Amino acid sequence: MSSIARLLRAREAGILVMLVLFALVVGLIQPRFLTAETLRIVLLAVPLIMVAAMGQMMVLVARHVDLSIGSILGFSAIAAGMIFRDHPDWPLFIGFGVALLSGALLGLFNGLVVTLFKLPSIIVTLGTLSLYRGLLFILSGSKQIDPNDIPEPLIKMAQTSPIDIPWIVIIAFGVALATHVFLTYSQIGRQIYAIGSNPAAAPLRGIRVMPVTILVFTLSGALAGLAGIIYAARFGYVNPGITGVGFEFTVIAAVVIGGVSINGGVGSVAGTVLGVLFLGAVQVALPILGVSGFWQNAIYGGIILIALVIDRTVRQGGLRGLLARGGA
Amino acid sequence: MSTIESPRPAVILREAAKPRPRWQVILVRPETVTFLLLIIATIVATRLSPFFADLGFILESSTYYVEFAIVALVLTIVIISGEIDLSPAAQMALSACLFGTAYRAGAPIPVAILVSLVSGLAMGAFNAFFITVLRLPSIIVTIGTLILYRGLAQVLAGDKSIGSFPGWFVGIDYRMIGIVPVPVMIFIIASVLLGLFLGITILGRQIYQIGTSEVAAIHAGIRVRRIKFGLFLASGLTSSIAGLLTASRLGSVRYDLASGGELTMVLIVMLGGTYIFGGRGSILGTFLAAWLLVIIATGMTVANIAINAQLTVMGLLLIVSIIATNAIYARSQR
Amino acid sequence: MSATGPLVSARGISKSFGGVEVLRNVDLDLMPGEVHALLGENGAGKSTFSKILAGVHKPTRGTLSLAGQPVEIPSPIAAQRLGITLIHQEPISFPDLSVAENLVIGQVGARPLGRVRWAALAQEAKRLMALLDVPIDVTKPMRGLSIADQQMVEIARALASDSRLIIMDEPTAALTPKEVETLFKIVRRLREEGRTIVFISHRLEEVRAICDRVSIFRDGDRIETAWTADLSDAEIIRRMIGRPVADYLHRGTSHVGAVALSVRDLTLPGRFEGISFDVRKGEIVGLGGLVGAGRTDVARAIFGVAPASSGTISVDGKPVTINEPSDAIALRIAFVPEDRAIAGIFRSLPVETNITAAVPEKIAPRGIIRRATEKLLASQSVEKLSIRLASVRQPIGELSGGNQQKAILARWLLSDPEILILDEPTRGIDIGVKAEFYDMIGELAASGRAILLISSELPELLALSDRILVMSEGRLTADIPRAEASQEAIMFAAVPRSGRHTVSGAAA
């Protein structure tokens, strides 16, 4: 393990350096960027992305991709929001349960279609991106969940907690920690890496590719569902036509920046967390620098492409290593 | 049985599997299924509303989808070659916004059109560079450029629309050749030309070969990278043309022009029976699928199904069509 | 036989792929505590048989029993449960995982949610590697390991699995003699522990050194099972190829003309270095060596698939630049690649399309395909090479391997080449068709073509070549004239002398 860790740590170190450099450069131009207040804003901005990014990372490690998470987020947020609106007396955790469960079910459907019919996940989830969005319009009757329907305690979770760090931040880092433990210390976690590293060899090695892959998509869906309720907490409303639209691209950008390889088999929680923080920093820095918010998507797109090229270069170095036949 | 050249039929069983009967080869094809669905959909739609018996109504209602259908023709060829391009809708938006910006800056319309077409080529070349030179997978590269291109369109146009184009430029969907609106005519002509290109030219043949096995194509001396580069250029150029058609139809451009179009395009191609893993498919299938989609979508609108809820059907249709196409091809392959 | 019954009994095992039968009615018993060799030429069915035992393929017909109990082995997982491990011919690995993880991942008994104990894992991995006497850092990722090292990890994995039956499919192909010796030591110990080893190899001396019994396969049939000591080498070879070796013998020295292809100092770092040789018109130059020695890379460089980074190639005495295959084709070079299924055929496309793939200008002079011309060219080729098929419109994937290969050869003959590079042209081909290929290759040379023949089958190299070049670890290590060529001479030059490259560029 330690050597892979070394390699990954090298990648992560690179991202960390990028993040620090970025902060310094922005800070040089606008000193007020380098304040605790900025850190607070960044930390508040990232839980949504971070939770979903953990799911997407697992999907990418297994050499798949999930484009439907934005719609899943929207669906779960609506589902939970409707519970809150129609049953204000029910306890909060039921809303959480509904969000997680509905996300998991939609993710399960993705996983089933991809594995049962052996289809490319990108096309399947492009289809379900549209399918789930349509379903959420039908479910909600195209009506928004208004701010006064979102319970007060939920809103509070986006603002504070007993230890003064907002609950949603604690939840996000908790999810990251749990994902790390799962991926590093469980047999299934390691099998996800194995499947992504060499899908053809996995069944020959006795790995049950299908259930593991289905699990990965289900987890990705459930985490997108959790992101849905975080959305409701943070923004205080859920709109069927807005909530989660284009969210998948933000998350993919974060994960790819975090050094997760689109070729599968490579990726770590630490890298992903850094990728998410980097994206959050960019988001917060733009208005401070006086750059129009319209630039955000163009920058994300550019960052994805740059990350791809970097990943490619790293791989090539690895390839050369593979070809060199060292004498035993 | 078809022609038998073997001198010793007795050994055939050991040397080669029996070929499938000809009727099966012709009938069990995704295009046939698309055609049958088209007929069924038309019948159902005519029952639903007498409007559908009127060809003019169908042609008119097709103008919204025909822009995507034109790009889908090129996308079909891209997918047959074993690649994919998810960025055309974003390319439509960016090239249209460039057109609008150039016009607003005082350029005459022909110059603005030229700007838009050149930008289409440039975006195609940019995609192609990542895919054929850096050899990155097209599926993820075009996700990146999809975000980038639409992001740039947003930078260019903000959240406002650019409009007030001269009257002669606006409303191309109302100009008719006979009873056929101009964009639909362009689609029909492009279908015929691209169908011939794919069907009878050596380049078309080589595209199928690349999609069937890229490695074998390289070993047979086919210039794989050059051909793929050309395909992405064509995709960019076609997208900018489609963007201009959209600008003319709407009379204005916004950064969110053709948003979600990548789904519609992929849906048309998949519905037409093109194999998602490359090597199989046809322009005929895509042509039929475009009309199938027009009838289904218009039918839903006539039946008062909200446009948002229609997303459900489109998504489901996409998934069902890849499953069906895959099943048909899996049957014919051992 | 002995007091205990057989561990494995196979009865009437048959297997077909796409209508082509590759294994016919095979009966075989494997005893506990024996090392059993499966011998046969490539495509004889021995690998298919072992994959059936390991649950990779399901037999079309026939039954298996394990320790007297009838069993079905539907998957590799089921095989592992039953205590059967297959060491694959080409080592399979997860390049992003560490060596230690590769040793245990997917192992039976590991609970899905069970914890991965990294420290214990590393400890066990180190113990296994020490057993095999391989100094590999088990914490490093597999990516970057040499083929030989990967093979050793694969073997270590089998040891860790504690299996009753271990099948080794050509485990020694990439190993050094010292590593082979270590492997044999382990195999002997496993035998003493009462385990059964199935050993597949092409090297008879290895079979003699370690195997108690041999089973010989030919063309999908099990021809014979016997004690190793009871058969002479010549008898084994005769049973493998079905007729005396002498039949293959060379067509006689032909007229060798001017130099057609000449390479000097061809180098692609990490693949091959300083390769220099000539091939003359009418000459068949053999190129031998172990798997992974870089032979295919040299061929791919000459043909422009993966060009060399330095060195020169000359055709008919003139230096040329070959950046991609189309350049090579324009210089009338043809290349029949080793991996037919991937680099040769277009599986789902008609035979005629496959045959005419390299001559677009012949079937479409102005860019438009002329169907009649295409059909004519294809039918002529089919007749000339007697390719057996039902129709030229049939997908090539429906043909047998030999006929597919004939179609690929036909493709290149249409391009009218002066220089032919044939990479393992008879791999996976029926014995009868093989003989046809030998005749064709001979005729091509006799008509003045220069031929570079890459082959791992020593009898084939010896029978056909005028001269044999040998590569080892990316360098040319020998240039053996026909008169002095022998299996021993080739093997001597092919075996890596790790670290010390004393012999280099032979033609210089």
TrEMBL record, chain A:
It comes from the Bacteria. It is a multi-pass membrane protein. Signal peptide: none annotated. The keyword Phosphoprotein does not apply. It is found in: Cell membrane. The chain crosses the membrane at residues 12-29, 41-60, 67-84, 90-109, 121-145, 165-188, 209-233, 245-262, 269-288, 294-310. Keywords: Cell inner membrane, Cell membrane, Membrane, Transmembrane, Transmembrane helix, Transport. The keyword Cell inner membrane applies. CDD domains: TM_PBP1_transp_AraH_like (cd06579). Part of the ABC transporter complex LsrABCD involved in autoinducer 2 (AI-2) import. Probably responsible for the translocation of the substrate across the membrane. The complex is composed of two ATP-binding proteins (LsrA), two transmembrane proteins (LsrC and LsrD) and a solute-binding protein (LsrB). This is Autoinducer 2 import system permease protein LsrC. It comes from Kaistia dalseonensis.
TrEMBL record, chain B:
Its main location: membrane. InterPro entries: ABC_transp_permease. It is found in: Cell membrane. It holds the Pfam family BPD_transp_2. The chain crosses the membrane at residues 32-52, 64-82, 111-131, 138-157, 177-203, 229-251, 257-277, 284-307, 313-330. Coiled coil: none annotated. It is a multi-pass membrane protein. Keywords: Cell inner membrane, Cell membrane, Membrane, Transmembrane, Transmembrane helix, Transport. The keyword Cell inner membrane applies. It comes from the Bacteria. CDD domains: TM_PBP1_transp_AraH_like. Part of the ABC transporter complex LsrABCD involved in autoinducer 2 (AI-2) import. Probably responsible for the translocation of the substrate across the membrane. The complex is composed of two ATP-binding proteins (LsrA), two transmembrane proteins (LsrC and LsrD) and a solute-binding protein (LsrB). This is Autoinducer 2 import system permease protein LsrD.
TrEMBL record, chain C:
Pfam families: ABC_tran. InterPro entries: AAA+_ATPase, ABC_carbohydrate_import_ATPase, ABC_transporter-like_ATP-bd, ABC_transporter-like_CS, P-loop_NTPase. Belongs to the ABC transporter superfamily. Keywords: ATP-binding, Cell membrane, Membrane, Nucleotide-binding, Repeat, Sugar transport, Translocase, Transport. SUPFAM superfamilies: P-loop containing nucleoside triphosphate hydrolases (SSF52540). Residues 8-244, 256-498 form the ABC transporter domain. GO terms for molecular function: ATP binding. This is Rhamnose transport system ATP-binding protein. It comes from the Bacteria.
